[in-house]
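[Meeting: bench + compute handoff]

Bench side (C.D.) handed over the final construct sequence. Compute side (W.E.) agreed to return the predicted structure before the next meeting so the bench team could plan truncations. Sequence as handed over:
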Amino acid sequence: MLEHFFTCPYCLESISMLLDSSQTKQIYIEDCEVCCNPIELKVIFFNGELSDFQTDRI
């Protein structure tokens, strides 16, 4: 597991999430812990390292 900090695309607050590095490519939805809006997360790991991280409004 990897803790990753990023900015919410809605409220612009800095938040963190634990990412599972055992899966190479992931797309999922999590609510912002500050404003509760849904965020689509696109995560790519390469050789166990985070290589791409994108957030989008839904």
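W.E. noted at the follow-up: The chain has a mean pLDDT of 96. C.D. will use this when planning the next construct.
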